[in-house]
Amino acid sequence: MTPLQHAAFKGRTDVCQLLLENGADVNSNHHENGYSALHFAALSGNPAVTRLILEAGAKIDHLNSVNRTAAQMAAFVGQHQCVRTINNFFPKERLEKFTKQQGFETEPKLPPNLQLPFLRLINSTNIHPVKVAMFLKDNKELVLDAYKVAKVLDILVEESMKSRDTNDVLAIKCHYFATLIRQASKFLKKPDDTLDGFVKSLVKGRDVDGFPEMQERIIRQCLKEFPYIESQLLQQLVQQIAPVKIGDAPTALTTLVSGIYGPVWEDDSSCWTCGELKAEKKCSACKCVSYCDQVCQKLHWPTHKKFCKSMAEAYQTREQERLKEEAEKEQSKKEMEKLEAQIKQTSVSEDSEGNMRSGETAVQQEEVASSQTELRMVAETDTLTGSAENDRKVLAENIEKSKS
Ligand SMILES: [Zn+2]
Ligand SMILES: [Zn+2]
Predict the structure, then answer these.
(1) Rounded distance from Cα 200 to ligand 1 centre (Å)
(2) Residues 197 and 53 in one domain
(3) Which of 45, 67, 165, 229 is the most buried if burial means most Cβ atoms within 10 Å?
(4) Which ligand is nearest to the CA of 304?
(5) Is the pTM higher than 0.85?
(6) Cα of 194 to ligand 2 centre, how many Å?
């Protein structure tokens, strides 16, 4: 096992970076089972490491000794984010013709200094518009050259749609990034403008329910403007989105993400601001919304503060109801046990009513009566399962019989 393979397996981006910078061979399969660094990165479950190894030129189709690629191994152990990263990877070789001057061109279509951020953008696995906007904010040079960057993306759309192996997944993804870059550029009018306004406009929720309307509208508009209406993926997305009212589920974003990456497992631990998975910080007041960090929480606060209190109350009510339900279940279980015992007792002295009653204390009689009433009430609620309901009915009939 090479040090790079080891670092990749441990999910250590920093160590991998250092080793690669110092000449580590990313495609070495110096391992007893023929694993490459990419296999280990994929198994680590860390998409950042996986992307780093891919960016260093790792071969995607390298097979280990049991004839499995890295993506297959990752799928096998359930590392879906790594599978996504590998399957959607756009190699830097494909960008070279844009960063080098071609034929009669006076300059390359894409300034060479934009190659790296461009690749990072196109290879990102979280395409949530806020996440993209935050990325653009940190890589402002892409937006300052928005015209050129969007143009290259447009060419990639065209190539993907017109090539023999049509790739409408890549085409729609590139078209989506071009749309966001063009939107972002509207916020950079003066040299020292930032993209804060762009990020905030995407996070902002509407007054009535906090739904981020702008995101929805941008994605819908983006799909409307996709130039290849014959694309099957486009048609499928439009069919799914068109009947949905803005604000209802599924959102255009959910539909787009599952169209590009395959089925999305709805996960309530994803960040409410940027969609990042496994966001572990929760709003301390309502415990209902998750965030990556304080940055995401602060961005969302102007929207969330209008709903935090009511969400906290709803959470409390839900918790109380859950506890009450549990207590009731426990109580009715006890009642059942008690009743069963009493029925056994009753059937023994069934022949002489007088004897039966005299054998019981007043308290016991009262208990039987009240549990019978409860029994009828419980049987009427639809929260019971069929069999439990039947048990209770049979029991109730038995009691009626034993009384008469
Ligand atoms: Zn976040
Ligand atoms: Zn809250």
Answers:
(1) 13
(2) no
(3) 45
(4) 2
(5) no
(6) 28
